[in-house]
Amino acid sequence: MSHVGTTDYEERPMRVTCPHCRSKSRITDTNTISDSVRELYCICQNADCDARFKMSLAHMNDIRPPKTETDNLLIEFFRRMPLAEKQRLLAQT
Ligand SMILES: [Zn+2]
Which ranges carry the Zinc finger Ogr/Delta-type domain (predicted)? Predict the structure, then answer.
């Protein structure tokens, strides 16, 4: 099963603003802390500020779980369903 090309959102580049002067900042490096947490090394692009700082990028929670997860849940749910229930469901499709 392929899920390629099923995005339903507009892709926008991530923007980091300087926490000191709110100017646009550039990400110069990243450091992976775990599968769900990364550190971003940033440089403020405002020459009068020129701050260097780290920001964290962390997964908070899923808005929609991965399709593989929901597919597997449905397959497992269907597999455990009594035969009569399966037949009743299939008759509706
Ligand atoms: Zn700044």
Answer: 17-57
